[in-house]
Fold these 2 entries.
Entry 1:
Amino acid sequence: MADHEGKIRIALTGFMGVGKSTVARNLSRLAGLTRIDLDDFLENKLGQSVPEYIKKNGIEHFRDAEAEALSEVIADRTFGIISLGGGTFISEANRRLLQESDITSIWLEAGFEHCWANIQNSYRERPLAGNRENAKRLYEERGLVYCLADWHFLIGSGNNSLDVAKQIAEQVFGIE
Ligand code: S3P
């Protein structure tokens, strides 16, 4: 596997349903970087799905497990692209860890309706989303923290996940 020592490493953040994993997949191909999805890593490690783990152990334990998984993923330098869970970047300690590890953070933003439609159409359960009203409130609160990321890209009509992956490749990695 490639070692990303000395190369830019990035973490994608943004609300549930924005398309972090899809952008990561496209970007991985365009930039030739190995990617990891923090939720997938956690699910392998915990031997159960994230929603199952949250239901059984509660959100606090999930956040602890998520923080630990983040340090492990960061320590493994084979990964150049990390797609975070929607709540990972909300933790100040996680943000500090990313910064101290020289990981460039990128906020992927889309309108609430885009995220909500994806949440509803997805096979993945999102226990944190709850109903529409709850998800909207969380979306608004979290925008105030996501905006602390180093970069910001908008996904929406006329700018899909592949377009955004190309923009990140060009602007962040300097790949034409
Ligand atoms: C969460 C988002 C989920 C997952 C967990 C908690 C959140 O990831 O980590 O259900 O707090 O926003 P996605 O953003 O990939 O859905």
Entry 2:
Amino acid sequence: MKRMPSTRDVCNFPPGFLWGSATAATQVEGAAREDGRGPSQWDAFCANHPERVFERATPEVACDHYHRWAEDVALIAAMGHTAYRFSICWSRVFPSGSPPEEPRGLAFYDRLVDALLARGVEPIVTLYHWDLPLGLAEKGGWESARTRAMFAVFAAVVARRLGDRVRWWTTLNEPGWSTMNGYLTAQHPPLKSDPKLALQVATNMMAAHAMATHALRAAATQAPRVGIAANLSPCRPATDSPEDRAAAVRADNVLNRWLLESALFGRFPVDVSRCLEASNLSPTLPDADLAALATAPVDWLGVNYYYPNRVSGDAPESKFHIANTGSRDEESHLSVKGQFRMVKSKSAAATDWGWEIDPAGLTELLVRVQTLRPGLPQIVTENGVALLDEPGSEDGARVRFLDSHLRAVHNAIRAGADVRGYIMWATMDNFSWVNGYRKRYGFLHVDRATLARTRKASSHWFERVARANALEGE
Ligand code: BGP
């Protein structure tokens, strides 16, 4: 009888598999007012609502990557990375969000791309990682058609400059998570809470994604592979009750399927549309936007995975909170009245911020995408664990997290998913949005006083895996 592969077997990854890590402009660059950069909605949010961010942190200095990029690229290469995912700060390129262009903005990314390629590191570029220019945010942001038109202009300008060297593009990072928190939970800018508007904005963002996809395909000279980085979480019923099972379906429809299926197929899922209509939550889009989306199915999918959802149908009230202190007593709340409520497992392992650790969820998602669009290339564009680590921490928890999630990726590949790479979040400890700087995800420890980078033990472990293109057995 054929032996089933054990989880402790050697796992060889396909030739050319990309090994890397990721950052986002707001979270690492700093230099918030330098070289003509304009303000973003996150700069304004942190300045105007400091009490909403852990320890009143701001992204003003972040990791000073804008000045330390050469050192960072050297470290990225030293860590054995063959890929690095980063985002372009829109308000560096267009300080107000719209032309005219600030030439020093793109010059920075031009240098960065050259430096990465010179060291054999493949750039994976994200056009939008939540840092909407304030000039656009103040005029309706993603609620407005003008923002999506400007996003396409921005995409074209970036593609003309970098598209002779960059092959892997993602238009948007996690439109689901940013819209949910900007328009439903009111934890991120623009601090609104309106389920119908949240769905409309998510839908608008998919139109923007489509327009940017066309702009990238037209302007980049090296056949671009255009994708989107989707935050996906399996939605599992908290119990076997019919109420919880129905709530899990409702949560999956809006948190996963609405955006995922529109990205994969260029149209919104009809059955979900019907459910939204029945609840009077239906978003609308002009025909031209629907037509743009119909011809823009992604060339590949970026999967950002952190944790699965456990869904209860017992949701008597709407209640929202992101636990941002790292203290285990603090609870997150995501409950939408009458729809679904996320609950925590008492027994499952979780981070200090309450995010459940479940590697099997990653296999499940990658296989799900493969089933929906067989043969579609996928890259895990984010996956990682936040810890309270200090320099010299033994870092075993991060190694165990990475080992188990890489085995989960390998399981998906064995099941037929075409996974082309694994990008760990994050290259370095960084500005973790409302969590400030305490929530540390990096391969590189960043000292907040000196900004000195120190390699954590997990980065050495990952380097060995990347260079071997394989996980060792036991
Ligand atoms: C994703 C974002 C990243 C990153 C990560 C961890 O949603 O794309 O930018 O921050 O999650 O989340 P957090 O920093 O909120 O813990």
